[in-house]
Design goal:
Helix content of chain A: over 70%
Number of helices of chain A: 13
Helix content of chain B: over 70%
Shape of chain B: elongated
Strand content of chain B: under 5%
Order of helices and strands of chain A: HHHHHHHHHHHHH
Oligomer: heterodimer
Largest interface: A-B, 52 and 42 residues
Distance between the termini of chain A: 16 Å
Radius of gyration of chain A: 24 Å
Largest sheet of chain A: none
Structural class of chain A: mainly alpha
Number of strands of chain B: 0
Largest sheet of chain B: none
Radius of gyration of chain B: 22 Å
């Protein structure tokens, strides 16, 4: 029976408030952690060029001469208005602008990685479940183990050696926005997405396999078989959609892998997405940028988990009652 | 001491049963055996690195980017350093980081989880709110951020990665304790007047070990990957220390002329991580722990 609407609304509201509280706590933690930097962050940020005047100017520009609580309040209220401060490097671009430029790149990368992962995982998972304990199953399981064990940045390097440097089929580095054409955009994303998506696909394939095996024992599967449905229809129409339910939960966990993967792989392919912005920010000791990038990455993660929870509640009505 | 025996009797059979089951599954599980073999091989390499490595890993020479040959089995890098020797020394760092990180995370995480689960109330609330908060970040991002805040270097990398993994152990330990503290043998121990600490760590914890062992094994592989990724990004150990991630990062610019710089260090990482995953999977079957994803 489909539960009453208010129950769903209450569930969504509860989860939304929960996610907002987590983000609030994350923001607070990120703010105070940066202030734990050992030594003198201003000296670190100014490097060798730090004259006393420049130092004073930076201290007052960053508001570091005020009490920490005042600093936090200012930072926090500006953050809510979409102002994350300015980069202390180069031409002092607003952090929001830097992140807004980076976000579509990481989103594109995450999206294509996700598609590639599913393209590998779904057939692999179904195949190994329907052919349990055969050579096919063993080969799929071995590939899944390899996928899980291969560092994504190493796979990225191997792909560059083979497909960019030797065969010259695809570009080795860089990013082209979608507005400049579909193929130029996609061609720059294929190799990095394979590097990120492979590990991701291994997790999903294993999950689909075990979930399919469980579902195949269900009574309705015996009914489907006794109705004389072909194996193909039994698997694709009856088993697979039901097997997907538990898989949805791990997608949230696997999403963490995808973001972490993007941080490293963007640096291999010189794609200036969130990951590269974060790492360059760290290398340049550009703390406002680091703070902003960490916030956006965790917001990304919290939202993905929220979406997974809500999706799960839609698929499996029992969740809403708990 | 006599009064302790009945409690022991209630605990012992399950542990003994698990041990024998582990032996029998490891006896049959080909994958786990292969994993143990590869892992043993790398442990030997790590222990005997100073004896096995044919060259000093940081010794530069004029034989730059030389192809793999009889003298340099895996070739040389852009500074003429012997790649095989660097990969051998890298084994030491990787395994050390993997094991020490997980030991730290295990001790800290389990202590937090056991305290939260056993005492409940405000202790549980405070600990679990923190763990939930940490749950909001991907582990690797936590490690990157901590290194960014506290700086690079071996010790910082170990602390950063272990803090990032702590929540996994805390969650598992807590949920195990919540189930186990209702068991009869815990009541029996309480009636006998044993201290909370003794009940937590001598009576409850030994029975909660199975999922923790599996998690610890898998975490070693994540820690090795994490260290390699941090080093690759220039956020790892000292740049003069040959670690697998750093060797790959150094060689990255030259891979079109010297493919071996991009292949062998990564192969070493993959083999070790694969071996650990094989062993972890065998342990999961042997100890009958359900996969949580």
């Amino acid at each position: 029976m489909w539960p009453a609407r208010p129950l769903m609304a209450a569930y969504i509201l509860r989860r939304l408030v929960g996610a907002a509280l987590v983000m609030l706590a994350v923001a607070t933690l990120v703010f105070f952690m940066i202030r734990l930097v050992p030594g003198d962050p201003i000296a670190a940020m100014l490097a060798d060029s730090g004259s006393p005047e420049a130092r004073e100017a930076m201290i007052s520009r960053l508001g570091l001469d005020q009490p920490v609580i005042v600093q936090f309040w200012k930072w926090f209220t500006s953050m809510l208005q979409g102002d994350l401060g300015a980069s202390i490097y180069g031409n002092n671009q607003p952090v929001t602008k830097i992140l807004a430029e980076a976000l579509p790149r990481t989103m594109s990368l995450a999206f294509i990685s996700f598609v590639i992962a599913l393209l590998i995982a779904v057939p692999a998972g179904i195949l190994s479940a329907t052919r349990k304990n055969t050579a096919t199953d063993t080969v799929v399981s071995l590939f899944a183990f390899l996928g899980l064990s291969m560092p994504d940045f190493w796979l990225a390097i191997l792909l560059i050696i083979v497909f960019a440097a030797n065969l010259q089929w695809l570009p080795a580095i860089g990013y082209v926005p979608l507005s400049e054409g579909f193929w130029p955009w996609l061609s720059h994303l294929i190799l990095p997405s394979i590097a990120i998506g492979t590990g991701f696909s291994a997790i999903i394939a294993r999950m689909i396999r075990s979930s399919m095996l469980e579902v195949m024992q269900a009574d309705y599967m015996r009914t489907a078989a006794s109705k004389g449905l072909t194996m193909r229809v039994q698997m694709l129409r009856h088993a697979f959609p039901n097997a997907l339910i538990p898989v949805v939960t791990v997608i949230g966990i696997a999403f963490a892998l995808l973001i972490s993967g993007a941080v490293v792989v963007e640096n291999v392919f010189a794609i200036k997405g969130l990951g590269r912005v974060l790492i360059q920010g760290i290398q340049n000791r550009d703390y406002p940028v680091v703070q902003g990038a960490v916030l956006v990455v965790s917001a990304f993660f919290v939202l993905a988990n929220l979406a997974v929870d809500l999706l799960y509640a839609v698929i499996d009505p029992r969740i809403r009652y708990s | 001491m006599m009064s302790y025996l009945p409690v022991q009797d209630l605990v012992q059979p399950e542990v003994a049963q698990k041990k024998s089951r582990m032996r029998s599954v490891f006896g049959r599980d080909r994958k786990a055996q292969v994993g143990l073999f590869i892992l043993g091989f790398f442990v030997l390499i790590a222990v005997f690195a100073p004896l096995i490595a044919p060259f000093d890993p940081n010794e530069m020479s004029l034989n730059m980017m030389e192809n793999p040959s009889g003298t340099h089995w895996l070739g040389t890098d852009d500074l003429g350093r012997d790649l095989l020797s660097r990969v051998i020394w890298g084994t030491q760092i990787s395994l050390f980081v993997g094991v020490s990180t997980v030991t730290l995370a295990l001790v800290a995480g389990v202590t937090l989880g056991v305290l939260a689960g056993y005492y409940g109330g405000w202790i549980d609330t405070i600990i679990m709110r923190y763990i939930d908060l940490q749950w909001a970040f991907p582990n690797f991002i936590i490690a990157v951020y901590l290194v960014a805040v506290f700086g690079t270097g071996l010790l910082n990398v170990i602390v950063a990665i272990s803090l990032a993994f702590l929540d996994d152990f805390a969650r598992i330990a807590r949920s195990m304790v919540l189930t186990l503290k209702e068991e009869q043998y815990v009541d029996a121990a309480r009636v006998q007047g044993f201290s909370d600490a003794r009940i937590m760590f001598r009576h409850i914890l030994p029975n909660a070990l199975a999922p923790l062992i599996v998690q610890a094994t898998v975490s070693v592989s994540y820690a090795i990957l994490g260290e390699a990724s941090l080093s690759f990004l220039g956020l790892g150990v000292n740049p003069n220390t040959p670690t697998w991630g750093l060797i790959l990062a150094d060689g990255r610019s030259f891979i079109s002329q010297a493919w071996w710089l991009g292949v062998y260090p990564g192969l070493a990482i993959m083999l070790v991580v694969l071996a650990i995953n094989f062993v972890g999977d065998g342990l999961r079957d042997a100890l009958d722990v359900r996969e949580t994803g």
